[in-house]
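Good morning C.,

I know you're traveling, so I'll keep this short. The sequence:
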Amino acid sequence: MSNEMELNQTPAEETVEETPEVQETEETLEEVVAVNPWEEKYNAEHDAHLRLAAEYDNFRKRTAKEKDASYTHGKSDAVAKLLPVYDNLERALNQACEDAAFKKGVEMTMTELVNIFTSLGVEIFGNVGDEFDPNFHNAVMHVDNEELGENVISMVFQKGFKIGDKVVRFAMVQVAN
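The tokens, ready to paste straight into the viewer:
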């Protein structure tokens, strides 16, 4: 009876066991197919191209940032060179003058200089009554005054100037309390 079963089996039903040699050759073929040298070269070239594009993009952004910084630096240097003129005009305006035409000329010159500073984006700061901020003010004197609050500017010796976030010159002030 067992012979009848064996005879009745069709070849499709027979179980074929693969030998280890057959398994190894199939794995080797899969590896060869998976490791196509043209595909590897394409992937390497594609990766190199992507890296080069990213490097160029970083270079472009860095040079644009450096260009903006150099423009701001140059502008702040030019403003710093004009600050003694501003200080002298301010002193001239604070002096008593009998000649009205002369005083008017100094006022017009000062107004024009302030307009130029404003057009360049320069902000003038450091007024009496403002709160003292060590990031913008240089305290050269201290006074106890009960009429003024804590850390309040009581006197300004020199105005401060800044362009954006960059301080060109700190304000020289006297601080109360």
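Safe travels,
E.
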